[in-house]
Design a protein that fits this description.
alpha/beta; seven-stranded parallel β-sheet; globular; binds nicotinamide-adenine-dinucleotide; about 280 residues; Rossmann fold
Length: about 280
């Protein structure tokens, strides 16, 4: 996609971090914006930011873990602008913790936020885009955690690998029907955002903290680790441009951290050799 002027971008998780940065790049390209977030205050601040710049923008408060709310998000975009040309499935959370400790409600939450949100949105938006029969693009935000694995965050890795696979397989299906819709999956390493403050975005129905896990060492040390890796990650400034360059170049995998390329190659090589995860080698 290279022609952005007056096209409509629908961006989830736009109140902060990557979503907000991608929205800024879309605004620079004179797109109309539908900004979506579960966080009312951050969403309002983002909408005001773009209104002050004279951008045609609509804010939709929405919990993307709920299919019915995603339906409302899509219908608001269509009612306001009549089309959706660029869908950015960005909203997500990063929940650490070992599989034998992490409460099932946290699994339901992260699968909803990182995977099902993308399914709900594509299920509704793809038929609209097919009907439009114009140049469109769908960007699913996964992570390099969807291309490699590490210790301490099985739920995050599982949902991000699923997001990569969902995007790849859907791309085949769109090619099979000669669709004009192009797809990309964004797979960055750590970047300085608010991702470690994931508890801020815990939906009401996953709020039961009676499980002893929430007062355990694992819970607090997982949060500390998440805070460390995010706050020491790459500065966010270049992210929006990296994404939009990838969209313009019709790059399927958009990667930002060359450091991880060796690890991606190493994982594939070791898979083919039948070698399993080795914590000592990972830490080395
Ligand atoms: N920051 C990183 O290092 C990094 C690296 C790789 C991938 N990612 C991915 O990038 C995406 C964006 O994360 P970020 O780093 O910008 O974090 P962030 O926390 O700064 O932004 C995420 C936004 O999503 C919103 N959100 C969370 N749950 C939601 C829900 N249920 N419904 C609607 N909105 C919701 C939050 O309110 C927030 O505004 C995520 O999918 C994340 O997994 C981040």
């Amino acid at each position: 996609m290279r022609d952005f002027k007056d096209k409509v971008a629908l961006i989830t998780g736009a109140g902060n971090g990557f979503g907000f940065e991608i929205a800024k790049e879309c605004a620079d390209r004179e797109m109309k914006l539908v900004l979506v977030d579960i966080d009312k205050e951050d969403l309002q601040a983002a909408v005001s930011f773009f209104e002050k710049k004279g951008v045609d923008v609509t804010g939709v408060e929405c919990d993307v873990t709920l299919d019915l709310e995603v339906e409302k998000m899509v219908s608001t975009a269509i009612e306001n602008y009549g089309s959706i040309d660029f869908l950015v499935n960005n909203a997500g959370v990063a929940i650490p913790g070992p599989v034998w400790k992490l409460p099932v409600q946290d699994w339901d939450w992260i699968v909803g936020a990182n995977l099902m949100s993308q399914v709900y949105a594509m299920k509704r938006v793809i038929p609209i885009m097919i009907k439009q029969d114009s140049e469109c693009h769908i960007l699913n935000v996964a992570s390099v955690a969807g291309l490699i694995t590490s210790n301490g965050m099985p739920a995050y890795h599982a949902t991000k690998h699923a997001s990569v696979a969902l995007t790849e397989s859907t791309s085949y299906d769109l090619q099979a029907i000669n669709s004009k819709i192009k797809m990309s999956v964004f797979c960055p390493g750590f970047v300085q955002t608010d991702l470690h403050n994931y508890e801020r975005h815990r939906p009401e129905r996953f709020m039961d903290k009676s499980d002893p896990y929430y007062s355990s060492y694992e819970y607090f040390s997982g949060q500390k680790r998440a805070e460390f890796v995010i706050t020491t990650g790459m500065p966010i400034e270049s992210i929006g441009l990296s994404v939009m360059n990838g969209i313009e170049e019709e790059q399927f995998y958009i990667l930002t951290h060359p450091l991880y390329n060796t690890l991606i190659g190493k994982r594939v090589k070791e898979m083919l050799e039948g070698k399993g995860p080795d914590l000592v080698a990972l830490r080395g």
